Amino acid sequence: MALETPVCDFGLPAPDFALPGVDGRIWTRDDCRGERGLLVMFICNHCPYVQAIRDRLVRDARELAVHGIGCVAISSNDVNDYPEDSFDHMKQVAEQFGFPFPYLYDESQSVARAYGAVCTPDFFGYDVDLGLQYRGRLDASRKEAAPADVRRDLFEAMRQVAETGVGPAEQIPSMGCSIKWRAD
Question: Is the bond preceding 20 in cis, omega lying within 30 degrees of 0?
Fold first, then answer.
């Protein structure tokens, strides 16, 4: 089921985390942040909305690093029902696409719950003080990539956050597959 993200709750603090990365180390929120802000991306391997934009995520993360924005991707899906989202598959996807950011596994799903993530992709853009400034889409892509010359909503918003500390007042929600919650 496709869902849209809620509107940005400006200033909401970024919850801390300590999660295993596909590189074998444990990453915290502060390990991932840049000198001007942090972008937390909830993604997964199997979602067609994420598959359509993986190359753009890599491009934008590399360019945002130049602006002092650190990026991290987190997968929180239930791998029992969605084995394609397993940690081993996460390693393969990160290597295949050359992820320039940590790709972390939230097995307990507690980090996704703490952030209020609802779908993949779900983007949380924070300022230097880790206050939420962006909760919108990457661009106009859906299950297929939008044209190459489309407006880069996420990149433009996070560059603005890096430069001014404030995200855009108008934000278009991200859309994607629902997070696959475990039936506890």
Answer: no
Exposure b/e, 54-71, CB count within 10 A at least 16 = b: bebbbebbeebeebbbbb
Tokens of 55: 């190359």
User: What pLDDT, on a 0 to 100 scale, did the predictor assign at position 2?
Assistant: 73
Residue 71 β-bridge partners: 39
Q: Domains in the chain: how many in total? A: 1
Terminal Cα distance for the chain, rounded: 20
Does the residue 17 lie in any domain? Answer: yes
| Residue 184, domain member (yes or no) | no
Question: In what helix (H) or strand (E) does residue 39 lie, and over which residues does it extend?
Answer: strand 37-42
The answer, yes or no, to whether residue 39 has pLDDT greater than 80, is yes
3-state secondary structure of 47: coil
- What is residue 7's predicted lDDT score, i.e. its pLDDT? 87
**Is position 84 within any domain?**
yes
CATH number (domain holding residue 109) = 3.40.30.10
> Is 183 a member of any domain?
no
pLDDT digits (tens, 9 = 90+) for 71-87: 999 999 999 999 999 99
- The whole-angstrom separation of Cα 169 and Cα 157 is 10
**Tokens in use for 97?**
């696409």
Q: Which domain holds residue 52?
A: 2-178
